[in-house]
Specification:
single chain, alpha/beta, Arc Repressor Mutant, subunit A, D-Maltodextrin-Binding Protein, domain 2, 3 domains, seven-stranded mixed sheet, two-stranded antiparallel ribbon, 10 helices, 11 strands, 44% helix, globular
Length: 293
C-alpha cells in the first residue's frame, strides 16, 4: 500500500462519499475510486459497503481507519522534521482549535505569525474541544487550542488568557429590559446552547453548578453545533443563551442582542501538545509567539 492510497481511503471514510473526497483532495472521482479498489484488492478485504449511491465503512474499514490515520500522521511528522533542515523558510503547521478560539481568537495570531514567517503554511481545522483533543492524540494536530474542561493526562499543556462567557437574549425576549436575572429564574426561559462536547457548554454547565442551578433543569429548546447558529437563534427569539464575549460583540454593537448579569468569570484557553510527537521549529516559533516557550 502507498501513502497516497491511505490518504484517499481516509478522505473517503471521512466524507463517506467518493466524489466529495476526491474534490477535497483535488483528484478525479475515478482516481479516488481506483485507489480504494486497489487497496481492497491488494489485501482481499472489503473496506466499504456499497449500497446504491451510498457507501459505509465495513467492520474492517472502521478498524483500519485509525491505523491509516496514525501512519499518515507519522509520515507528516517525518516530513516536518525534514522541513526543519531548511529552517523556517518552508513547512506546514497543523493547528486544531475549538470554535470560539478558531473563529475569533486565533486568526489574528496566525496572521501575525505568517507576517514573520511567510514561507510557512498554517492549516487550521475547527471542531469542538473533544475533537481537538483527539486530533492532538492522533498526531493530526501539531498544536491544539481548547476552551473546555478535559482530562489533561497524556498532554503537554499550557494556558493563555482567554475570554468571558456572556448571558444574552434577543431584543424580544421577556428579559431584554432587565439588567440582570437571578440564577433561580434561569428555568423560566427556553435556552439555546452549544452541543455537548463543546468548551462553551462545559464551562457554562460548570458555572451553573457553582451558582446552585442543576444544568438538567434548564428547558433546552435547541442544541446547535456552532456559535453563529446559536447566536442567530437567540436573535430570532428562540431563547436565552450563553456564548463567548468574543462571539456576541457584533450583536451587542448592532442592538440585536441584550446582555444580562450575572457575569461569568474570565476563562483561560488551553494549548495542547502531544509530549511524544516531534516538536518542530515551526511549533517552537508559534509557541514562542504565545510566550509559552
Amino acid at each position: 500500500m502507498t501513502l497516497e492510497q491511505l490518504r484517499i481511503f481516509v478522505a473517503v471514510a471521512e466524507h463517506l462519499h467518493v466524489t466529495r473526497a476526491a474534490q477535497a483532495l483535488n483528484l478525479t472521482q475515478s482516481a479516488a475510486s481506483a485507489a480504494v479498489q486497489a487497496l481492497e484488492a491488494r489485501h482481499a478485504t472489503r473496506l466499504f459497503h456499497r449500497v446504491g449511491r451510498g457507501i459505509a465503512l465495513t467492520d474492517a474499514g472502521a478498524a483500519f481507519l485509525p491505523e491509516a490515520r496514525a501512519v499518515l500522521a507519522r509520515a507528516a511528522l517525518a516530513e516536518r522534521a525534514l522541513d526543519d533542515l531548511s529552517g523556517l523558510r518552508r513547512g506546514v503547521l497543523a493547528l486544531h482549535a475549538s470554535q470560539t478560539i478558531g473563529n475569533y481568537w486565533l486568526p489574528p495570531l496566525m496572521h501575525r505569525f505568517r507576517t514573520v514567517h511567510p514561507g510557512l503554511q498554517l492549516d487550521l481545522v475547527i471542531g469542538n474541544t473533544t475533537q481537538v483533543a483527539e486530533a492532538v492524540r492522533e498526531g493530526r494536530a501539531d498544536i491544539g487550542f481548547v476552551e473546555g474542561d478535559l482530562d489533561l493526562a497524556g498532554f503537554e499543556h499550557s494556558s493563555v488568557p482567554g475570554d468571558r462567557l456572556a448571558l444574552v437574549v434577543g431584543t424580544g425576549h421577556p428579559w431584554a429590559g432587565d439588567k440582570m436575572v437571578a440564577p433561580a429564574r434561569f428555568v423560566d426561559s427556553p435556552w439555546v446552547l452549544r452541543e455537548r462536547g463543546s468548551g462553551t457548554r462545559q464551562v457554562f454547565e460548570s458555572a451553573l453548578e457553582r451558582l446552585g442551578v442543576d444544568p438538567a433543569a434548564l428547558p433546552v429548546a435547541l442544541e446547535l453545533a456552532s456559535n453563529e447558529a446559536v447566536r442567530a437563534a437567540i436573535e430570532a427569539g428562540a431563547g436565552a443563551g450563553v456564548l463567548s464575549s468574543l462571539s456576541v460583540e457584533s450583536g451587542l454593537r448592532f442592538g440585536t442582542l441584550h446582555q444580562l448579569d450575572p457575569p461569568f468569570p474570565a476563562r483561560r484557553f488551553r494549548v495542547l501538545r502531544h509530549p511524544d510527537h516531534y516538536r518542530s521549529k515551526a511549533v517552537e516559533a508559534f509557541l514562542d509567539m504565545l510566550d509559552l516557550g
